Amino acid sequence: MRLLGIGATVIAVWAGTIALSYADEPQWRTATSLTGEPAHANNFTRYDYVNPDAPKGGTLNQVGVGSYDSLNPYVVQGVPAAGLVEFGGGLLYDTLMTDALDQGSTMYPLIAEATQYPDDFSWVKFRLNEKARWHDGQPITVEDVIWSFDLLKKQSPMYNKYYGDVVSAEKTGEREVKFTFSQKNNRELPQILGQLVVLPKHWWEGKDANGKPRDITRPTLEKPLGSSAYKIESTVPGKTIIWSRVDDYWGKDLPVNVGRNNFDRIKYEYFLSEDATWEAFKKGGIYDYRLENRAQRWAEQYNFPAAERGDVVKKSFEIHSFGRMQGYFLNSRKEKFNNIKVRQALTLLFDFESANRMMFFNQYKRINSYFAGIDLASSGLPEGREKEILETVRAEIPAEVFTQEFKLPVFDTPQKTREYLREAINLFAEAGWTPKDGKLKNAAGQTFTIEFLGKDQTDERIFNPYISNLRRVGIDASIRIVDATQYQARINDFDYDVMSTIIAQSYSPGNEQRDFWGTKSADFKGSRNYSGIKNPAIDKLIDFVIYAKDRDELVAATHALDRVLLWNYYVVPQWYSETINIAHWNKFGIPEKQPDYAGIDPFSWWILPQKNN
Prior knowledge:
The chain is an alpha+beta fold.
């Protein structure tokens, strides 16, 4: 027999006959990237920035705000404890693959040692690492993967939308699992399935210490079985949770873990407010490092004794790992916000410049995109492929998309302030709301009211300048501060007028856009479609993003989506910073270099032996 290889086709010539077969399968990959070649595609032993000889030991002290009442983060009900996350594995569980910290949209092996998919991206396979184990010593199996996928897609709003195009998960070998997709050419889907958290089927289908069947569809305070570098050591519900490093963790020698996970214990203590956590940080021994997101505090308040002695250190790191939309999300499920002129008027009344000058020490930039800070942000007028994509929905989107560059108001003179107020009043009038007796009212005599939902007293300081401007045009605006548990419940139920949050965006947006802005997620409780967007044009543009054939197409489609979201005024954009401000007690060894992409990797730090407490 003579074999001639031609691409993926093998031509077999034997006994005077020719048979065609497709014996060559797609290659197995140990690294994948949506933005180019993986930085560590060959001979990957560890991240370049870590200290492979970092000592293990000590306790990392951290804090939580509010309270918690569940150790199951994969249900809408309840508030999960610190260290648990609603998407991904958090401290407790490993995922099939893991996101690189030094390169965007790149993944390396974790539970899966390799992945395989065809050129048309119609399916993906993962081959599990035979060493992968749960903390009880049992192997992580293909059955665990399939059970986790089916369950999470059924009960989690995030997983449901993220993996909406996955129609089946099946076992194709002793350690192989295959996911098949409803459509081809979803370039992102094979990779993001690597983010699937794997849960222990045998544990969740077993019984608790009292002999009662466990129920993964409900919150629980029983310590779940995990698989990752840490496990839950102890809990005092609502007050503390302590994690301990797993000495015999199966994946400790994987390249992505070398030089990392150095703390013996991670302790979270809960406080009722963000201000209380600040006092705890200043005291020491309770809160070891903090991300400082208050510009005034960063500029003026690090003058307490420990900081002046040098026991507390301030550092800033550039961050390039994500774009973002941070803003006031207007709940368009409510009739008063279901008018584009009203939403545009509310955007005109937000004075960023004064807030940045008076509260933020000019440390922030204005959010001007749903992908602010990265090259996926739209600008200028649409052209080329982006314009072609927009033409497919021309009749369904604001005409200004094609004729005007989107610009937010700039409050740089008193004249501009008066101009924006007049323009906002005119827009309200066109929407049926006119000033009467100092209040903005509709034809039925109802006053336009807005309640801002907040979860901390510091929200009042941030919201109040905007609220003052709203009151100037006759809006009855107020703020409601609730505790963390009530806040999460109201967010899950979309029980608010306006809420403030941030939506982080990767360099390779895709299926998650359905959860952020898609019609099907608008009424799916617990989704991240906070504005309640139901717009067929946006649904179509999301599909252009998801099914982009290459990077150029993805950028064009994302620009188009960004532009249409902006011109519909679903969110009043706020601000962002291009740096991470970190303050920490001087008890850490920190690698000289931190990952450029993520900005920081605290799990590459270690406790200095002389401060090992």
